[in-house]
Amino acid sequence: MKFNKRIFSLLLEQAKGDRSWRQFAMDCDISYIQMRKLALGGQENSPRPKLIGKIAANAANGITAEDLFFCSGVYKEEEKKP
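and the corresponding structure tokens:
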């Protein structure tokens, strides 16, 4: 599955909740520029699992890691098929 930038950005908008993008990025311990690039669909490659985990750990509105992994086209290590 390919990285779906549009769906990922929609999920990020929901995961942000009522925080600013800057605050959400700080909560996730990632750079504001990286967060905005993802939110605006400006990143061509899917985010790495570690980054998705950081976002999911701080997500609001019931957005889960599985939601983010699904639209990123990346699977967590334990879910990879041999």
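(Above: one complete record from the training split.) The CA atoms of residues 56 and 66 lie 9 Å apart.
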